[in-house]
């Protein structure tokens, strides 16, 4: 039936459209970027599905994106011969925000337009950007292999219509009816310059009609012209690529609207052959701590897109890294199962991890401000690394930054190397304390003796710290020692006179200790005279091999 159906948007979509139009208006050129990016993704998907089913090409395997406009009708049209969408897919992908994070998204909106615009990019809502410049959008699409096409139409105000349609060619065509005043999108030269600026790196041709000057006017000819470079950016030589191109490519692969913090582009040759282009984002996505979340590496084999989110290519603790890995070592029909058992993939992963850690070390060394921005966004995730990646443990730990009693502020700026360089004469351990808040760590009575003696102590209060310390017991040959655990032996840090004085107090206190022990009974293991306190009368201490007090509290809170 060709009946027209009217369906309502999800409430969030409506809200999102309003927000999108207002906050991105000053940056409306991105509409083209987003729609071209979708068309390119659709071509990638077709290529991938066609590996198993060649008939999907329907004798048309020259994938491309076409952009055209009609001055009279005031329409701008983007069409592709990619995978297309079925009716269900249109409803799911275009009528809904299918992403799980919709609620978090609305909760994180700040009302600050610049910030909110950046958030939008993380939610895979690029398609809706069309409404920034259009007051009506008509999408006609036919999925590869299907006979029936479907037409979706909306003015972006709460509902949309859906009807069956005829479409000879496979793929998706999006026609935008431009809003009043958006005539710049009806200009041949302007469109071409936007495409070159934002979409040059798209690997398939973006074609437009060639135009000529006739009687002082630009007129369209019948001839096609490829507007973009249409070559894989990562396969080009480094010194051939500008920073702007790297940044635009990042936005395409990451779906992020913000610039990346840093990137690393490498061509590996020899036993293994692959190219990697890896980016560190400048902001953490809202679902960074969701361990189920998708990974950000796209896998290509000899320039052919194979899959998104190839989780075998980056360890969990580097799940914020985005980018592309292109190898000649794998077959085109590689599956996720094959990836799990591939020695080649293990080698590529190990090499890529080294590159990312190297990039971070370089940032820490040469751009400390950028590194501290990175640390604030991703430090907690990186800390998972010492437990996950044994072979790079020392390197990873070298990237850690902590708060300490030296500055006595919450800012995490002290590296283990800094700490060691400031160790007192005779000090052989790295002292730290963990607590469930910075204030609790900072004011712990366990610190009194250290403050008195001027010995620096690392103040740890991130939830992940306890787990991290379970794996990181040593750095650069120095043991990490909790100041709240076991017998505090400051060894050579104490002088003889002090020791004698302590011995005397211990002898004198024997009967008092006995009385306290009897009073507390089973609730404690031991009662001891201590010299670690200078102001507080008493404190609780864990045994050297017990869980720390903080970890015990965390486990209790988690119901264990
Ligand atoms: P994202 O690209 O981040 O997923 P978009 O809002 O840009 O978010 O697109 C939403 C979804 O709509 C895409 O994931 C895709 O499934 C579908 N889609 C959009 N444009 C096309 C297209 N040209 N061809 C096929 N599917 C498309
Ligand atoms: Mg998109």
From TrEMBL:
Annotated ranges, domain Histidine kinase/HSP90-like ATPase: 27-182
Any one Gene Ontology molecular-function term assigned to this protein's record: ATP binding
Region (A): 1-336
Keyword line: ATP-binding, Chaperone, Cytoplasm, Nucleotide-binding, Stress response
Entries under CDD domains matching the protein: HATPase_Hsp90-like
Any single GO CC term annotated in Swiss-Prot or TrEMBL for this entry: cytoplasm
Pfam families per record: HATPase_c_3, HSP90
SMART domains, sorted: HATPase_c (SM00387)
Binding site residues for ATP: 34, 38, 80, 85, 93, 99-101, 122-127, 172, 336
Subcellular location(s) per record: Cytoplasm
Main location per the UniProt record: cytoplasm
UniProt family annotation: Belongs to the heat shock protein 90 family.
Complex and partners: Homodimer.
Function: Molecular chaperone. Has ATPase activity.
HAMAP family: HSP90
Protein's name according to its UniProt entry: Chaperone protein HtpG
Organism: Methyloradius palustris
Gene behind the chain: htpG
């Amino acid at each position: 039936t060709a009946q027209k159906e009217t369906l309502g948007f999800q409430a969030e979509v409506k809200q999102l459209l309003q927000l999108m139009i207002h906050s991105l208006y000053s940056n409306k050129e991105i509409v083209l970027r987003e729609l071209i990016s979708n068309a390119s993704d659709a071509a990638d998907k077709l290529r991938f599905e066609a590996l198993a089913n060649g008939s999907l090409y329907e004798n048309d395997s020259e994938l491309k994106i076409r952009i055209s406009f009609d001055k009279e009708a005031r329409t701008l049209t983007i069409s592709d011969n990619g995978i297309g969408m079925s009716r269900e897919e249109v409803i799911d992908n275009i009528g809904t925000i299918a992403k799980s994070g919709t609620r978090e998204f609305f909760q994180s909106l700040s009302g600050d337009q610049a910030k909110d615009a950046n958030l939008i990019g993380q939610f895979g809502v690029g398609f809706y950007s069309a409404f920034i410049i259009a007051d009506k959008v008509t999408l006609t699409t036919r999925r590869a292999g299907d006979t029936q096409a479907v037409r979706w139409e909306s003015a972006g105000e709460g509902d949309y219509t859906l009807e069956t349609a005829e479409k000879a060619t496979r793929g998706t065509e999006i026609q935008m009816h431009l809003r009043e005043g958006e005539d710049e999108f009806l200009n041949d030269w302007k469109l071409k310059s936007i495409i070159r600026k934002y979409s040059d790196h798209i690997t398939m041709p973006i074609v437009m009609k060639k135009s000529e000057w006739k009687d002082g006017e630009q007129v369209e000819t019948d001839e096609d012209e490829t507007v973009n470079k249409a070559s894989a950016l990562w396969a080009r030589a480094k010194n051939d690529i500008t920073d702007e191109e790297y940044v635009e490519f990042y936005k395409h692969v990451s779906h992020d609207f913000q610039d990346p913090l840093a990137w690393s582009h490498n061509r590996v040759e020899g036993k293994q052959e692959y190219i990697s282009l890896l980016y560190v984002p400048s902001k953490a996505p809202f679902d960074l701590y969701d361990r189920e979340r998708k990974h950000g590496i796209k896998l290509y084999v000899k320039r052919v897109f194979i899959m998104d989110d190839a989780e075998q290519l980056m360890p969990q603790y580097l799940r914020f890294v985005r980018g592309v890995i292109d190898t000649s070592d794998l077959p085109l029909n590689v599956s996720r199962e094959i990836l799990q058992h591939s020695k080649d993939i293990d080698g590529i992963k190990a090499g890529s991890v080294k590159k990312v850690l190297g990039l971070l070390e370089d940032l820490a060394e040469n751009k400390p401000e950028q590194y501290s921005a990175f640390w604030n966004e991703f430090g907690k995730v990186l800390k998972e690394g010492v437990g996950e990646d044994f072979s790079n443990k020392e390197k990873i730990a070298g990237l850690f930054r902590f708060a300490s009693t030296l500055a006595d502020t919450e800012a995490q700026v002290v590296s283990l190397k800094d700490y060691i360089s400031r160790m007192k004469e005779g000090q052989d351990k790295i002292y730290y304390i963990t607590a469930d808040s910075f204030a609790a760590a900072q004011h712990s009575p366990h610190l009194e003796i250290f403050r008195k003696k001027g010995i620096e102590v690392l103040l740890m209060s991130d939830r992940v710290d306890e787990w991290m310390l379970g794996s990181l017991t040593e750095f650069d040959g120095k043991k990490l020692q909790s100041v709240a655990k076991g017998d505090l032996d400051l060894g050579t840090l104490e002088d003889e006179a002090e020791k004698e004085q302590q011995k005397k107090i211990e002898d004198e206190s024997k009967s008092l200790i006995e009385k306290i022990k009897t009073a507390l009974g089973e609730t404690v293991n031991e009662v001891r005279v201590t010299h670690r306190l200078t102001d507080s009368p008493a404190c609780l201490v864990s045994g050297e091999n017990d869980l720390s007090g903080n970890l015990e509290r965390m486990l209790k809170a988690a119901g264990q």
